[in-house]
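Section 5.1 Outputs to date
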Amino acid sequence: MTEANTQHDSTRWRWRLLVLVILAAGAGGLVALQLLKPRPAVSPSVKQLPLVRVAPVEMREGALAVAGHGLIKPRTEVALAAELSGRVTFVSPDLVTGGRFAQGDVLMRIDPEPFRAALAQAVAERQSAQASLELAEQQLKRTEQLIAQNFLARQTLDERLASRDQARAQLARAEAVEKSRQIDLDRTVIRAPFKGRVLSEKVDPGETVQPGKELARIFADDTLEIAVSLTDREVALIADPWRTPGGGKQPDASATVTVEHGGARYRWPARVDRVEAAVDSATRTFNVVVRVDNPGARGEPVSGGAEAAPPLLVGMYATVEITGRDAGRYALVPRRALRDGSRVWLLADGNVVAIRPVIVIYDAGDETAVAGLDGTSRVIVSDLKVVTEGMPVRVLEAKARAP
């Protein structure tokens, strides 16, 4: 082997050795980095507690207010209709929608002349029948005298008796016809049967009307009433609503009727009058009728201005609050806090859940009156999938209301 070849082999081995050294250094550095890099801190897992929203429990004592809604309707409403045909000759200026009238006021007249003529004819027929009866009685009396003197046969007396009886019947018929004609004449004048107001009218002077045609609709304005639909539980809170209206020593349950008008609210005193005889077949509720005895009085302002306080009018939508019986001490909780109809979840000391049974006294919209709470706890209004007695929770505090 020559000297040049020997030198070439020596150089090649040096390069191989250098590459191996570099690879070993890289691998060692990588291992060192893995061994020396910082380890992340490991903390034990923490169980997240359920977040709940709570509301205060409001304690009250005394009578409950049973609330409902309804339309104001007349207690007495009638349709005025003609009882005979004829031409209308007079319509009262008060017989307009919203008009007022007193009992006995003449509201309308139908042309009386045809009925006066018919009455005069009936009077003449009655007078003629009266004269015929008087003649028959005189003839009967004369016949009886002649028969007593044996101048006439007994058969003649029977004929005179029959004539007298026939004349009596004709007179009775004539008197009945005269009375009927007088009634017809009286019916040409239509008077108000009570004091009240006009709901609607459909007649003008000169119009020819027929019997039974509705001419106007009127109502008595001394009393209005509202039928309020209540559940059996709500009716049970009213002190004896089944008694005869106005009867007995116990006074009728008081109530308040409230309406909104012009952005303000007004109220009138009222009282429970009766419970209607049938239960609503669809809703299974009772219609409790509340009566307002002085609806024409201006309403007492509850909120808003009172310069133009209205009277209570038919057709207004009203809120009714009936004073119920004394329920003792009870709690008001949000309706959504009631669970399964007879339990609530309370937030006890230490922010744990306490499940308590309650007795529902009255359910009114967003609030429910219940018995069985002491009023020292807050009630949970949030929905939770799983709830157990003593379960810890986190509380979401309500935001303060803007002033």
